[in-house]
Structures are given as structure tokens and as C-alpha cells.
Design a protein that fits this description.
Distance between the termini: 66 Å
Order of helices and strands: HH
Number of domains: 1
Mean pLDDT: 81
Radius of gyration: 20 Å
Oligomer: single chain
């Protein structure tokens, strides 16, 4: 039983890390998309 709880705890923390990583990656991606959209050459008129 204890072993199961340890594995469950590890699985949860691993999932947590993966989700956090995905959130960070999607935030970076969205930020890049935003800048590419806002500062696209057509928008500036170059």
C-alpha cells in the first residue's frame, strides 16, 4: 500500500511538472505569436 502511495505521489509530481512545462511553453509561444502579429512588417508599413 505504501509503495502504491509513493508511486502515485511520483506520478502526480511528474504530471505537475509536465503541465507546468506545457504552460510555460504555451505562454512563450503565445507571446511570440503576439509579437509577430503586432510587429509584422505589413502592420508597420515597411
Amino acid at each position: 500500500m505504501l509503495r502504491f502511495q509513493i508511486y502515485a505521489g511520483l506520478a502526480v509530481s511528474a504530471t505537475d511538472k509536465i503541465l507546468t512545462l506545457q504552460r510555460v511553453e504555451s505562454a512563450i509561444y503565445n507571446h511570440k505569436q503576439f509579437h509577430e502579429t503586432v510587429y509584422a512588417p505589413e502592420m508597420i508599413g515597411i
